[in-house]
Write a structure and sequence with these properties.
Number of helices: 15
Shape: globular
Order of helices and strands: HHEHHHEHEHEHEHEEHEHHHEHEEEH
Strand order of the largest sheet: 2-8-7-6-5-3-4
Distance between the termini: 53 Å
Low-confidence stretches: none
Largest sheet: 7 strands, mixed
C-alpha cells in the first residue's frame, strides 16, 4: 500500500510553482511577450567563466576513473578544506575540513542539520516571512516548526514574541539572512541580541539550542548593508550554504553545511550528517561539482544587475504608492498588497496583465506579495507600467 503521508502531500503544491506554471501556460497560449514573470528565484546572470573553464579542465585533464568515481561519504577532502580555508580567510573563523559537509544545495544542508540537532517531537523556531519549504524539512525530521509572527515594520526579529515562544522543547532556531522573501538583512544588532537570548535560554533549560542559518544569499548584499557572518556571534551554529545564487549554479545542486568548530560536539556533527545520508539516500553531490567549485570559492557572478533592478523597482513602486521595505540583499522585495487579499491581487495581476508575482500567504505573511527581480533590467522597465495598473485595480 502506498504512503498516505506522501500521497496527501501531492495536493499541497507550492504556490510559487502554481504561479510559475501559470506563466508558462499563458506564454504558450498567448506568446512570451504576454508574460512578465517575477515568480521564481532562478538567477539571470551566468556563472563565472572560471567555473566553466575549471569544468572543462577537469574533464580534459583529470584521470577519468578518479574524477567520476564515488565521492567519500563525507565529501571530497580537498573541497572541504578549500571551503574551510575560504570561510576562515573571509570571516575570521577557524573551520577545518572535518567541519564541512558538501550537500545538494542549501536544501540538503538544512535537511541534514535539522536531523542532527532536533529529535522526534522537539521544536524548531523560525521567523515569518520564511521559505515555505522549511515545513517539509522540519516535519520530515519528526520535529515541529513554530513560527514567530513577522515584524512588518522592518522585517527584523520581534524579540518579545520570540522570547515568549521559547521553551525547553526548542532544539534549534532557524534563520534566513539575507531573507527570502523580504530582501532584508539581519543587522549586527539583531544577531547579537538573538545570540544573547539563545545563550541565556541554553543555560536556563540546561541543553544546547542550535542556530541553523540558511545563507544561500550571503553574497547578494547591497551597498551599505550591515550583513554580519552569523556564526561569529554564536558557538552552537551550523551554516547552510548554496552556490546556486552566488555563482548562478541552481541546476548543479551544490552547497554545504559548515559546523561552527566551537559548537558542542562539533567533531561529531559532520559524521552524523553522513549517517543522515544513509536514511535519506543523499550520498553527496557529484564529485565533479565538488571539485569544480573549489576554483570559485572567493568570487561571484556579476551580481550588480540585482542591485540595479532592486533600486529601479523600489523607486518606481514607492512612487506609484506601494508600501515596501527597501531590500538590502537577495533578488526579492516584499511590498504590501493594495488589496487586503494578496492572493486575489496576484491572480488578478496574472490573468489581466500577465504580471506574475507571488502572494505572501505562503511565506506566512498575508497582505504582502513577493517580486523576484532576477530578470533582465529591460523586463523590469517594461513591467513598471503594469505594476501601476495593478495598483489602481484597488486605488
Amino acid at each position: 500500500m502506498i504512503s498516505q503521508f506522501y500521497k496527501d502531500m501531492t495536493g499541497k503544491e507550492s504556490v510559487i510553482r502554481k504561479f510559475f506554471d501559470y506563466s508558462r501556460a499563458r506564454a504558450a497560449e498567448l506568446g512570451p511577450d504576454s508574460v512578465f514573470n517575477f515568480s521564481i528565484g532562478n538567477p539571470s546572470v551566468p556563472c563565472p567563466e572560471d567555473f566553466n573553464e575549471e569544468l572543462i579542465k577537469l574533464v580534459q585533464e583529470r584521470e577519468p576513473v578518479a574524477l567520476h568515481g564515488y565521492s567519500p561519504t563525507l565529501g571530497q577532502n580537498s573541497t572541504k578544506q578549500a571551503i574551510a580555508d575560504s570561510l576562515n580567510r573571509r570571516f575570521g573563523m577557524n573551520y577545518e575540513a572535518k567541519h564541512v559537509f558538501p550537500t545538494s544545495g542549501a536544501a540538503g544542508a538544512l535537511a541534514h542539520a535539522i536531523r542532527c540537532v532536533a529529535s522526534e517531537g522537539e521544536t524548531i523556531i523560525t521567523f515569518a516571512p520564511y521559505f515555505p519549504e522549511y515545513i517539509p524539512y522540519v516535519t520530515g525530521a519528526g520535529a515541529k516548526l513554530e513560527v514567530v509572527p513577522a515584524d512588518t515594520t522592518a522585517f527584523q526579529i520581534d524579540f518579545e514574541k520570540f522570547e515568549a515562544m521559547m521553551n525547553p522543547s526548542v532544539a534549534a532556531v532557524l534563520i534566513n539572512t539575507p531573507n527570502n522573501p523580504s530582501g532584508i538583512v539581519y543587522t549586527t544588532e539583531t544577531i547579537t541580541r538573538l545570540a544573547e537570548i539563545m545563550s541565556k535560554k541554553q543555560k536556563e533549560y540546561g541543553h544546547e539550542i542550535f542556530l541553523i542559518t540558511d545563507e544561500p544569499y550571503r553574497e547578494l548584499v547591497f551597498a551599505g548593508a550591515d550583513a554580519p557572518f552569523v556564526s561569529k556571534f554564536y558557538d552552537n551554529s551550523i551554516c547552510c550554504y548554496s552556490f546556486s545564487k552566488s555563482i548562478s549554479l541552481p541546476g548543479e545542486r551544490i552547497g554545504y553545511a559548515a559546523v561552527n568548530p566551537a559548537a558542542k560536539d562539533a567533531d561529531y556533527l559532520v559524521p552524523m550528517m553522513g549517517q543522515v545520508s544513509r536514511f535519506t539516500g543523499h550520498n553527496c553531490p557529484t564529485a565533479l561539482m565538488q571539485f569544480a567549485v573549489e576554483k570559485c570559492l572567493d568570487e561571484t557572478s556579476d551580481l550588480s544587475i540585482y542591485e540595479r533592478n532592486a533600486n529601479l523597482l523600489y523607486d518606481a513602486l514607492t512612487k506609484i504608492g506601494y508600501k515596501c521595505i527597501k531590500p538590502m540583499g537577495t533578488f526579492y522585495m516584499f511590498p504590501e498588497s493594495p488589496c487586503e487579499d494578496a492572493n486575489e491581487f496576484c491572480w488578478k495581476a496574472a490573468k489581466e496583465l500577465g504580471l506574475i508575482i507571488v502572494p505572501g500567504d505562503s511565506f506566512d505573511c498575508p497582505g504582502h506579495f513577493r517580486i523576484s527581480y532576477c530578470v533582465p533590467t529591460e523586463l523590469v522597465e517594461k513591467a513598471i507600467p503594469l505594476f501601476e495598473k495593478a495598483y489602481h485595480f484597488y486605488k
